[in-house]
Write a sequence for this structure.
């Protein structure tokens, strides 16, 4: 396993895709380099692209080889990398995700508490204390792969996965935490739920959390949960997203 | 025009060129499995190449026509018939109220597209009409068609009855019978496999597994050996046609409904023609894998585009042929068109006498 941010690999991925890889492991600096290259490629106008797909450690650049040749895409990526990406970097955004912990929304919070040997209140405190980072979106539409959870509350998956988990459920699986964007089966330990809709096909962009965002879980009570749920339903809710200089 | 679904067939979904631009949100591209067939079908009926069509799989649906219009079934030979009379693939045909479209049995290939001027009219979701059934996105209520559904077609699409009977010549149509070799453009995690493993992949015969669908095509055959580091990687992008080899050592070609990202080693990506050939292969088909070059893959794309352009030209000249040869189907109406012969354009006006 290694990291090669300064000497990324250019991988052939068929005639219509180029993958620029900065590491073969999960690494925050490599992920930042991915986001910065994405930002550059999406904003330049010299080498037309179809879309960019950022992942943990690489950026897939899709293009139409009958419109632009691969060499031109590679040249643009090299230019981006030469232009000191840390200066011309992607904006650094943090989104707040209100979560009502425990109770009917977080039926497994007791499992997590007993596994960590702490109280449920302490689980909430530790889960919401640290800002997590969204490395990529994948698996199912709108699913954010989050890293950076306090490892003291890491808990193995349920032995028997649930057949339906409601969209918005916040869970823990091993050292990972995540939010189910849509109703789906799964085996994560559910500790709470957010009233926000993480994936809305009719919206552009359809996802609330974008790859590269930092995510802050904000504990809310049941009343506040219901109030936000109403605002979301009527379209009045504005997600709390802050932008910071790097 | 509308299609009322009498029988839905095995798997009939609305598809276009796919939902590009949302993979970073985790939304799979989906779209037609045989993209060139959809493009040619659309060219035959005068659509833009990305108009939505009904993708028919192996056992076709039975549809009752309401209203009137033009249809063509492009792609596999699945026994396309109108009112029980065999029409076959690639032939444009005028249809009218009460006509019944049906499919007798698969003869060659397994997927095709029912195209109609203006395309299939379902709401755009994230810029596409493609159906992604796993997340119930797009198409007709996010699912395959069921008996009783009524599918709107045509929209405000222009159509000319003069297109009736038009069929491009075989030379520019895909040939679904010849392929047994699938070409892989090496790349991605090819270095995750042992030399012996790659030798196995490129020298053995594989069989298309019955566990194949729009998401991916599995192959049965000799196992491909990974190096010590194994088959799992930190998730990265899965391009269309990527050949993924998980720990079990058997290749899986990732197709239209593939997930955007995945955590298995990929040995490379199939060329456009090989993706098309695979989309038309039935389970049990026998294939061999071969190495492709980048030039070959781009040439295949260019040739597919040239075929679509050729169909458009032939269509234009078919429509502008003298009306007497069109027989009783052409109404006696004034018409105007422009024809180009050896670089010179002529405006032609027909009038009733």
């Amino acid at each position: 396993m290694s990291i090669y941010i300064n000497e990324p690999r250019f991988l052939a991925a068929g005639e219509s895709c180029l993958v620029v890889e900065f590491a073969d492991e999960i690494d925050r600096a490599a992920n930042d380099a991915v986001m910065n290259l994405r930002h550059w490629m999406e904003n330049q106008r010299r080498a037309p692209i179809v879309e960019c797909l950022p992942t943990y450690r690489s950026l897939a650049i899709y293009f139409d080889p009958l419109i632009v040749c691969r060499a031109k895409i590679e040249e643009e990526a090299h230019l981006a990398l030469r232009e000191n990406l840390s200066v011309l970097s992607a904006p650094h955004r943090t989104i707040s995700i209100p979560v009502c912990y425990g109770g009917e929304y977080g039926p497994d919070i007791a499992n997590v508490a007993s596994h960590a040997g702490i109280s449920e209140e302490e689980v909430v405190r530790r889960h919401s204390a640290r800002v997590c980072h969204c490395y990529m979106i994948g698996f199912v539409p709108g699913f954010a792969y989050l890293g950076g959870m306090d490892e003291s509350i890491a808990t193995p998956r349920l032995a028997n996965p649930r057949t339906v988990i409601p969209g918005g459920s916040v869970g823990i699986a091993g050292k990972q935490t995540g939010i189910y964007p849509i109703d789906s089966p799964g085996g994560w330990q559910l500790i709470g739920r957010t009233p926000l809709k993480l994936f809305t096909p009719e919206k552009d962009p359809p996802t609330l959390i974008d790859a590269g965002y930092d995510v802050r879980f904000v504990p809310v009570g049941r009343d506040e949960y219901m109030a936000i749920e109403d605002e979301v339903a009527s379209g009045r809710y504005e997600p709390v997203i802050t932008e910071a200089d790097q | 025009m509308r299609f009322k679904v009498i029988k839905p067939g095995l798997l009939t979904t609305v598809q276009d060129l796919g939902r590009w631009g949302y993979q970073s949100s985790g939304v799979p591209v989906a779209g037609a499995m045989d993209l060139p067939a959809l493009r040619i079908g659309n060219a035959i009926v005068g659509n833009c190449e990305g108009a939505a069509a009904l993708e028919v799989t192996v056992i076709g649906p039975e549809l009752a026509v309401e209203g009137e219009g033009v249809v063509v079934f492009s792609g596999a030979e699945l026994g396309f018939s109108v009112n029980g009379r065999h029409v076959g693939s690639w032939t444009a045909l005028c249809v009218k109220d009460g006509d019944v479209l049906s499919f007798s049995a698969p003869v060659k290939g397994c997927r095709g597209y029912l195209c109609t001027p203006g395309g299939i009219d379902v709401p755009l979701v994230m810029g596409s009409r493609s159906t992604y059934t796993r997340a119930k996105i797009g198409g007709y209520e996010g699912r395959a068609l069921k008996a009783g559904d009524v599918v709107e077609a045509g929209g405000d699409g222009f159509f000319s009855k003069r297109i009736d009977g038009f069929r491009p010549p075989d030379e520019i149509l895909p040939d679904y019978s010849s392929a047994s070799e699938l070409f892989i453009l090496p790349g991605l995690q090819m270095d995750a496999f042992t030399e012996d493993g790659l030798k196995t992949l490129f020298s053995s015969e594989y069989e298309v597994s019955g566990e194949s669908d729009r998401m991916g095509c599995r192959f049965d055959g000799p196992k491909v050996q990974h190096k010590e580091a194994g088959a799992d990687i930190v998730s990265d992008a899965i391009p269309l046609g990527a050949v993924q080899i998980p720990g079990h050592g058997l290749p899986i070609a990732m197709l239209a409904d593939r997930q955007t990202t995945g955590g298995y080693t990929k040995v490379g990506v199939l060329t456009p023609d090989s993706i098309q050939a695979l989309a038309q292969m039935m389970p049990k088909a026998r294939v061999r894998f071969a190495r492709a070059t980048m030039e070959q893959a781009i040439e295949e794309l260019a040739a597919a585009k040239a075929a679509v352009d050729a169909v458009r030209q032939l269509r234009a000249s078919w429509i502008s042929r003298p009306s007497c040869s069109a027989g009783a189907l052409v109404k006696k109406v004034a018409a105007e068109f422009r024809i180009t012969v050896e670089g010179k354009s002529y405006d032609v006006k027909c009038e009733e006498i």
Observations:
- Chain B is about 15% helix and 30% strand.
